[in-house]
Structures are given as C-alpha cells and as structure tokens.
Amino acid sequence: MHHEDQIIADELRTLNEVEFHHQFESIVSVELAATIRVLHFINELDRRKSFLEMGYSSVLDYCMRKLGYSRSGAGRRIQAARCARRYPEVFGMLRTRELSPGTAALIESILTDDNKDEILSRIRGASHREIERVVSEYRPPVALRDRFHFVQVPVPAPKNADAEFFGRQCRRSLPEEWRQPVEEKVYVQFLADEEFMKLFEEVRNLMPDGGEQNIADVMRRVLTEYRDRHSPAARHARREAKNGSARLESQRWECDNTQSRHIPDEVRDMIFVRDAGQCTFVAGDGTRCRCRKGLQVDHIRPFSAGGTHDPSNLRLLCGAHNRLAAEHVLGKHVMQAYWRQQ
Questions:
Q1: All residues at 6 or more sequence positions from 15 whose CB lies less than 8 Å from its CB, including other chains
Q2: Adjacent-strand bridge partners of 187
Q3: For position 336, what pLDDT does the model report?
Q4: Which letter, b or e, does each residue of 60-87 get, where b requires 16 or more Cβ atoms within 10 Å of its Cβ?
Q5: Around Cβ 329, how many Cβ atoms within 10 Å?
C-alpha cells in the first residue's frame, strides 16, 4: 500500500462511529460538488476550444491525454456535461441525486425539447436498469440475433506475490506487440425478455456468492446442474456408482418379457452412453450422421414385429434417420405425412 494511503487508513481507524459517518457523508458531498464542477469545466473547455492550441484534437482527447481519464470515463463525463448544458434542470437533478452523471450521459442522445419533460419525470430517482429501458423506447429498433464470436482477451496477472515477476517475464520474453498475454474467450450475444431477467436475478441471488457472480459464472453453474440432472450419461454414472459393478442383466430380462412400449429409463440412458450421444446411422461409404439433437431410441427390430427392449435391439437415431428407418419397414406412403410435418 502506498504510504499516503496507509496514513489515511490509519486515520480512519482512529475515528469513533459518529465521527466516521459524519466525515464519510461530508466527503461524499464534496465528491458530488466536485463532480458537478468538473462538468461545468468540461462545458467551458468546450466553449473556449483552448485545447486546440494546447495540441489536443478534441475535448475527449484533452480529458484522456491531459487529465488521465479513460476513454469511457471521459466520454461519460462529456456526455453528461453536454446534457446538463442543453437542459440545466439536469444539474438540479444531479445535486439532489435523482440522477447520476452516468445516467445523464445515457439519456443525452435521446433528449429533445419535445420529450425532455416526459423523460426526466420518468427517470427521476429510477435505477440504471429502469433508465436503460426508458432509453430503449426512444432509440430505433435494432435487429439482433444469437451468436457466438471468438475473441482474444488479456490474461489477468496472478493475484499473488508473483504478479510483478509474471509481468516482467511477459515483457522480456514476448515481442513488443505481444507483451500483454491473451487467452481465447467466446463472446456470447442473445436476446432475453423481462421474465428471463427476473429469473436470472432470482437464481443468482440464491447462490451463496451470488453478488459476486458474473453472467458467465451463473450460466455455467446452472447449465452444469441441468446437465448433471438430465444427461443420460450422468444418470447412468450415478446408477453405476450406486450399484457398484452390477450390470443391468436382470433388467434386460425384464425388458425382454414386458408388453409395454415404454423403454425403462435405465436402458435408455445405457443406450445414450453406449452410442456416445450421437445418431448411429452410417451411410454406405462409412459416413456417420453427426446429429446430437433430438435423438430417439429406435428398435432395430420393430416393437410391433416382436422386437424387445434389449440394448442389442436398440440404437440412437436422429429424428430424420428414425423416419427413414420407418420408411424401410412401413413404406414411404405411410411416412409421407410425418415428413410433411417436419
């Protein structure tokens, strides 16, 4: 910890509860006043254009290179400042904390003389998510689709004493353009409705560390739990663990003698594991179907012709190849209606 930071931390520990909270509230008030003053400075800088003579191409360039703001941080402050310059009542809402600089930046692009009263009344004291919803109503609709996109992202330095050594090694061993180590991730985009968001927040809050979980962590845990609960391979593994090395021979005999079309779950799961969760259809040239969706357990010798539920008479087929197999037995004229339904 920096020496100055250590001094501040030590000073705060000496305060009693009343002094601590009094100073905390005071410094927050100072922070708010300073933030509003920064917005005024930005607007005055924009009016003067003096940044041009100083070698900066724009207010954004000045805030980034001269003042050290990040691009996003500078951009938000500039948008908030311009919003308040156009509509001074925004400054009043900032002072009363009915609006934050971030949300002022969010509405800057949609505020007009005609809609400002309605929008400002709707977002007064609203949460960031509620304000995003209002803003979306005033933006043109966008066409989005589900997609997966591979991206390279920086690798975070280890959170231990070796972090500095890790950084030095990376700088020494990699070319200039590669000195920041990266790893491959997948950028996932999909559309969701309000019901999904409520369900997502409910599930995240149920997790012991829900507040610390990002979207990927939550979805990974939910998907893992669903897979472990419903995957034929997982169910089969649980049965084997429970029964030891016992096989399903006795169950097979029971299946052979049953008059029911229903294939016991134990046998269905065994077939999924044996066939690796993939359609088993193989063409004449040896090409195997790669479908893994909507798989069906099919009787090689049809049940109606005396076929049993013994695993040796069962196989995994996708819907299309199951219908194709049925054509060979029942004829195309019978299956034609089923093909039209697909």
A1: 23
A2: 149
A3: 63
A4: bbbbbeeeebeeeebbbbbbbbbbbbeb
A5: 13
